[in-house]
């Protein structure tokens, strides 16, 4: 069963074709890697998936429901959560608040609930609070709950971003270069963390330049170059694929 | 009335720890007995004015401090509330108790009206648009003479009555604004610590990330404007009946800047800070009345010093507990970071 279906999607920026007739299917419960040289269009694909850029042509389906060109907050509510290449935490808010904000689309309390604190609003607050604390505990971040997110170390900020995304109970988790800037030990820990999420049945799509991580973590790898998909398959196959090697290293003379 | 303010009081007090509790309690007692201890019409007038500006500044603080949306036309909502209330009571002979909430709702409605087309704008553009909005409202108040009498203003705005008793005494106004301030404070404290308040703060921190967390940023920004404007409208209504005379001059650009200064001086995002800022900047012109020519210089100088020395405001950044200033190093926690369970 494919959870996400990207169907012949094209995105142009003026004269530049950033994503060119790109199709891909992501199966439920898998970890898929999206790789390619710099400027290949990987992050643009993520931004199309999450509604940050409008799609020029093609369609995107989440569980057979079209999410093409929907507003980002609707796509998030539909179950797509993401992290960013350059960490975008709510720096001046506490670690706990960051995670509680991540759960926004799972709540419904509005102005009335905020001001009058009726039963439903109080119960919802309690549920969100408990869930956020549990997620922080599982990620080993509980001791930093009242810390400002901006005061955490780089590695912990990356992890908090994932936890924040998880708070929305996503069906698809999109990670944009989760290991960027991490030292080998942090990368190891991150891989263990992602594996644990996978073991729980979460579908994950990630962009990554660390090939060791991609090859050992992903069941499927999609390779992009110049906005197009040039290869797709299990990691062993991708490793030896001619087109991929050429894209990364250049053609043999 | 007693019961209501009592339950409001307990609900504030439940939310703050013991040490702060005694501080706030003594403040409240001081506010309550002020007119009895210091029997001066002048003092009472200044104190009442402080209350009006606290309500105005708390409303703006939700928009600018929490949601991070600049507004240079805040006095427009104040004016809309004042004129709505005054005209309802004078022309349609409505009761003040009806006109007061109506003034709030009218201002909130204009908050929505301003919000819908402008919420896609950011920073400077939003600042300029709200500045324009403030001027438009002032010019309408000035030029729609059939309705507002223009620059002649509206004199003789009646005082409210309750159960047939005319409430025109200065004491009534003083205690009534105290109640309004408490209600505004409680409402704001509750909003800040709620799903709605967190969404607003997320927008201030990083709008794109907020959208990706499922927050409909346009909608929430408009909500912030509407709620903030509601309180500005309430303050306007109170002011109209209290001063018994209003004209468009009361709601000019200078008022917008004054309220914004109160929010900045005390510290955006800190409710006690905003209260402090409003009180100081209301008292300051009175204290400096002797040196009237130098008043604005001192006023501007204080703002410049705030921006240079403490841009987060005097109370800014002291609100959160247990925040260490040193970054937490990776791997220095007690347990391994990514534990396999």
Automatic annotation (TrEMBL), chain A:
Domain ABC transporter: 4-251
Keywords recorded for this protein, A-Z: ATP-binding, Nucleotide-binding, Transport
Matches recorded under InterPro entries: AAA+_ATPase (IPR003593), ABC_AA/LPS_Transport (IPR051120), ABC_transporter-like_ATP-bd (IPR003439), BCA_ABC_TP_C (IPR032823), P-loop_NTPase (IPR027417)
Name of one Pfam family that matches: ABC_tran
Residues of the signal peptide: none
Keyword 4Fe-4S: no
A GO MF label: ATP binding
Protein name: ABC transporter ATP-binding protein
